[in-house]
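General statements about sequence and structure are easier to judge against a single worked case. For one protein, we set the task of working out the structure tokens from the amino acid sequence alone. The sequence in question and its structure tokens are set out directly beneath this paragraph.
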Amino acid sequence: MQDLSLANIRTEVRKTKGDFNKIISVMLDTTYYDVLEERNEHHQRKNEGMFSDFTDEEMMYYYIHQRKHIRKNRERKENTKTEYLRILLQFYQYAGESESFLRQDVENYIEEIIFKNLRPWHIRNYQTYLSTALLGKGGKPYSPATLDAKMTILKSFMKWLHETKYIQHPLHKEVLGTSLSEQEIPNRDLYYHEVKQILEYYKDHPINHGLLTMLAMTGLRVQEIAKASWGNVYLDSFSGHYRLKGVGKGGKEFDKLLHPSLYERILAFRERRRVHTVLNISDQGPLFPTKDGGYYQYKNLSNYIVRIIERTELPCVKERTDRITPHYFRHFYAIYSRQQGADIFLIQKELGHSDRKTTERYLEKVLQREQEIGLMWKEQDF
């Protein structure tokens, strides 16, 4: 953290004009967290406010790294922290560029601290800016789903700043509602005939066939597939099936069935990559290695999946208004499992959802069709 520290991030934010990669790499470094904790402990011993001498940058840093669970594997993952940082830094940059205005607009302006000078109308102005600025894909405004995600995180951060007494005004109460209507919720449903066409298209391509089948037949997140190890595949002596162990989102362990057809495609993938296909629990190499034999970065793998699906130019792909991402295969897993008779609770458990409502959203159309009144009619009466 010598080249760029928390102390000069404000200057760097203004200089980069939205390219936060360098700043994020610094703020993801957890080594500074213990220093901040020591300062907090010192303040507590003296009956002083915990964050009395923190800067805005230190508050953002502390917020994303703050420990909430005794086990480290239950803390926020790096990709989650990165997303939080991008959203908070975007707001921080906006506020920083308005500093000269804030100095004139706010009585008793506090130098070198931006967040403490914010007032309710500033939050409302930012939300208006965020909802109208052409910052989304294709030079368009943000989609309702993106806007909702950004404001949810900003509202949570503002609430925390107020609860810690870092700011005096409850700015989180000024964030207008951004919840999505039923029509605005992205349609991520994917059905058997669509998945079958995509898999059939790549049946002679071991790399693509293996990755796509893994997504479809396990319901795993792309992050979980990217970091899966060959050594975590084992033959279950009870059932005679191959299985994959791992740790998913929120530190939840999973133990996934690998159907024979899927296992064969995994082996075909590995053969094409010229790596071992004999089970070895001590082999901590990737289940799906890159050309160089290393682990995929999950974002690179996600982007690759999107590209190869688009490349098929199948009607089920071209007719969509949005791109099919790896996450759509989790929806397919839920939908197909339900069509095969699976209970919602079992689907929830397999997908690792903490809340049943999340699973129900995946299955919304299927559940509606199951309870369609027209199905109760006697067709022969007409």
User: Anything to note?
Assistant: The chain has two domains: 6-174, 192-370. Residues 95 and 287 are 45 Å apart (CA to CA). Residues 6-174 form one domain.
